[in-house]
Amino acid sequence: MKKNQKIINHLYNAGLGSVRYLTLLLTGGLTLCSLFWGYYAEDMITQKSVAHREPLFLHLAGLAVLLIVLLLLTKFCQPTTGRRSSLLLAAAMGWIGLWGLFLVFCGRHIPAADSASVYTIAQALASGQTQVIHPTDSYLSYYPQQMGLVAFYEVIIRLWNLLPVSYAAHYIIQCVNVAMACFTVFFQYKITCLLSSDNDRAAVCYLFLAMLNAPLIFYTSFVYGEIPSFALLSGGLYLLLLFLQKTELSFRQRLLSLTGSLLMLVSGVALRKNSLVVMIAVVIVVLWEWMRQQRISLLLFAALLTAGCLTVQPAIQRFYEYRAGNVLSTGVPAISYVAMGMQESSRGNGWYNGFNFDTYEDSHLNAAITAQKSKNAISKSLSAFRASPGFAFQFYRDKFLSQWTDGSYFCRQATAAHSDGRIKYVEELYTGRLATPFIHYCNIYQLLIYGGSFTCMLPLCRRRTQAPAVGLPFYVGMIAVLGGFLFHMVWEANSRYIFPYFLLLVPYAALGLDRIYPFLNKSRHCEDA
Questions:
Q1: Quick one: which of 79, 75, 211, 225 has its CA closest to 156?
Q2: Residue 306: phi, psi to the nearest 5?
């Protein structure tokens, strides 16, 4: 028995060590790349992601200013009581809420492209028009994975229609996004407290980082699944970490934590299927902890989470098919996204170029034929890569940089469509003189988060370190980021898809920036001496 436990501990430590060094390598690479490169669109019409060599000294100066301001704010606002901590949390959530509402009603973004399709279908279903559930003549016949988001919007629109107001329903959806962004800040603040062992200074640092997060505020106006899905994922991750790290919880508290985590994580997948990447990270961590602790509750949680994530969207689809008395097609096969991710596009390497949609449509919505055409396209791309390794390297280098070094994470492009009511100062951020400063600010902020995350990972990889020993649950967010990196190097590219992984890094950045304080204090003591 002791021998088996020794083997298990050895395997656990080997896995933990691998995660430590992989996350250090990734965060270090992201920091260097964001220091020298930036990919972003200057033209809101073509929305082409263009490579830019960043003004190094300008960004280093901006980073220094941001860092000094952040450290000063954290020093003077560090709470000493629970009440003061709650006030700071409320202030951060209020800040996000006020700016989010400002952009909703002054930016006047309206749904466009995919978000418009999802929103329009939800409106139709809310008014009883079930003919949008159709095997061929529906957006959902191409993308049935949007069914969960449609259901979420339908509920909101039905409730909104009960009120005697003249505002379009997308405004209330955007207001829900604002509330969800506030919930995200709340849960990530709680996660930071858990990861830092209730270090007030690190938690306060997170709150100020959240208030500086411009893409988070911009995405509240985006009528799509990013914000509500991530809010649910954040809540689920917090409850899971609470269960794994707080051993003093009662049986009832542990049960509620696991149940709440399960429901929120599955709901997050229902609203955005790409959240499965985060779920894989969660399942890996839970199973690894089960191997070490041998707690049946962990094994049961992993099984239920896997089953829930795999069945929630098909179950919602079956419900709507039954309600409409019709069926949907199976949708664009996943391999088409892989094929498209290996092709050039006007927006960037591996970005959307219409291949998946056009191939499926040309195949008369036959998934098998589409899959075969996609396999042929993959073979063609692989042949081109083998014939020119230099081209292959350049292709994937640019695909990586176009996703991970856009500090705005496509937030301007995603919210560019607007009604005539957008005020001048908001429009300046899109097409006016404020656009370039906004882009540079986002890139400097991105560098701060990447650098802070690297600073967090660095001492954990040393053999002899004064940092507290941490287990695999500490790295669950980082494992999800690693998974997102691998997934989107294969899948369709878009910097918008990277935004949730960027948000996962913010608590780690807060912990990393908090570790700068001892060096500053040490330098000050040396000067005093």
A1: 225
A2: -60, -45
Specify the DSSP class assigned to residue 493.
Answer: B
Distance CA 499, CA 10 (A): 35
Among candidate residues 43, 165, 161, 172, the one with its CA nearest the CA of residue 111 = 172
Kindly report whether the global pTM for this prediction surpasses the value 0.90.
yes
> 333-350 pLDDT, tens per residue?
999 999 999 999 888 899
Which distant-in-sequence residues (6+ apart) come within 8 Å of 267 by Cβ? 232, 312
Q: Report whether 257 contacts 240 (CB < 8 A).
A: yes
Give per-residue burial for 492-525: e unless 16+ CB within 10 Å, then b. Answer: bbbbbbbbbbbbbbbbbbbbbbbebbeeeeeeee
Write the CB contacts of 35 (distance below 8 Å, at least 6 apart in sequence): 54, 56, 59, 60, 447
Give the CA-trace dihedral at 415, 419, 424, 430, to 10 degrees.
30
Give the integer Cα–Cα distance in Å for 37 and 54: 5
Rounded-to-integer distance, Cα 24 and Cα 457, Å:
5
For CA atoms 525, 68, 78, 253, the dihedral sign is: negative
Residue 514 DSSP SS3: helix
Count CB neighbours of 43 within 10 A. 10
CA angle (488, 448, 227) in 5-degree steps: 50
The backbone torsions φ and ψ at residue 212, rounded to the nearest 5 degrees and listed phi first, read -90, 0
List, for the chain, all residue ranges whose pLDDT scores fall below the cut of 70: 1-3, 79-82, 461-469, 518-529
Question: What token pair was written down for 488?
Answer: 């989107």
Residues facing 52 on adjacent strands: 38
Q: Which residue type sits at 245?
A: Q
H/E/C letters for each residue in 399-465? Answer: HHHHHHCCCCCCHHHHCCCECCCCCHHHHHHHHCCCHHHHHHHHHHHHHHHHHHHHHHHHHHCCCCC
Angstrom distances, CA of residue 101 to CA of 291, 442, 515: 46, 20, 34
Cβ proximity of 418 and 110 under 8 Å: yes
Dihedral of the alpha carbons of 278, 31, 210, 519, in degrees to the nearest 10:
120
Best CA proximity match to 16, nearest among 297, 283, 290, 285: 285
Tell me phi and psi for residue 198, to 5 degrees. Answer: 60, 40
